[in-house]
Amino acid sequence: MTEANVLVIDDDDDILLSAKLFLKQHFNQVVTCKSPKEINVLLSHNDIDIILLDMNYQKGASDGREGLYWLEHILSIDKDYVVILMTAYGNVELAVQAIKKGAIDFILKPWENDKLYATLSAASKLRASTRKVKKLEKIHSSLQNDIARKFENIIGTSGPIKHLQHTLTKVAPTDANVLILGENGTGKQVFAYELHKHSLRKNHIFMHVDLGSLNENLFESELFGYAKGAFTDARDDRPGRFELADNGTIFLDEIGNLSLPLQSKLLTVLQNRTVTRLGESRERKVNVRLITATNMPLNEMVGKGTFRQDLLFRINTVELMLPPLHERAEDILLLADHFLQTFSTKYHKSISRINDKAGKTLLNYHWPGNVRELQHVIERAIIMADGHEITETDLQLSPQRFGSSTPVTANMDLEEMERMMVQKAIDNHKGNISRAAAELGLTRAALYRRIEKFGL
Q1: Sigma-54 factor interaction domain spans which residues (predicted)?
Q2: pTM of the prediction?
């Protein structure tokens, strides 16, 4: 029994009876009617997959115009309906015209049962395939919407973030390969999605691949796909991540973790813009925008021979360096408030603010885990809080991870606190900028900017 419902429309009672008696042996449901004027009602009350439509209804008609008219009408209701036309008058030109207008096949009456079954069986497979594609499209659209909600706009007003946002507006609309550098937890995946969201590929897939968690033995099969029988468990053909991301963006996270042999294989794909599935010799073209990320020093690795220089040239047309959270302290409370709203809603709690003492604590903390750690701290605080605000106790931050051993006074604002920390570090190291910068977790350039800002 084929999982499909068939509608047969013909003005001949004998034809309808004959079709129903035969087809109900092979299909879930067979609905019949004498007049195409009933089409709208029948389609609205039945889940029809295949429509077997006669081409002539008026007495003496043989030109098929009625059938073509009702074909267009059916497809105007839903262009995915599978329609097969039938007539007692063989006419090749009419058949061609019907196919052009959207029919999938043409049957002459009287039909042979085997041929009728074969035609409708093929039609049911086409209908099932179309429905599967539609379902996958809906799933894809839903996933992309979920991703969009997960990676909301980049939050921050600090100098480094403004600079990155300015760069993003220039780079995103291009197809340039982008390498995103930064410590763990700085938001590399968020920036990668932001690039995709503002690119010309935004309506296609954003494919995230965590190379750090990918077993080396599975690298080729996961990224490039495999053919049936390529290895023991390869029971079907399967496309890899590059093929699935065709016309979209592929984000290769933790690219610094790749071994040299795997780097070589990736480079070949990037150079040729083709992939070859395991167990096949056929090359398949892929059209993807490449974004990569790592927290590892790739330039140093090139010098040590652990990362291919030609691969680095290929992936870093544009480099984005994400600052650690303690270098964008102006953004800490903005981010904390954003996470407060997100998790208050998620956990159905009416927590409206972070109190002043807790805010000072957040500003004075060093944030070794960066934005990701801040997110986890606020989520945990929301869960643990008893009142309508987050307190210092709710944060549960480690006292060993604060930027200064000197307590922050209750009335000290952010700039005063930052100035005090910079001055103290410079004094501790007797003016040695490199050592002071290392203590603060800043680059020399970042420290010089703060010295100029505070007039030290």
Answers
A1: 154-383
A2: 0.61
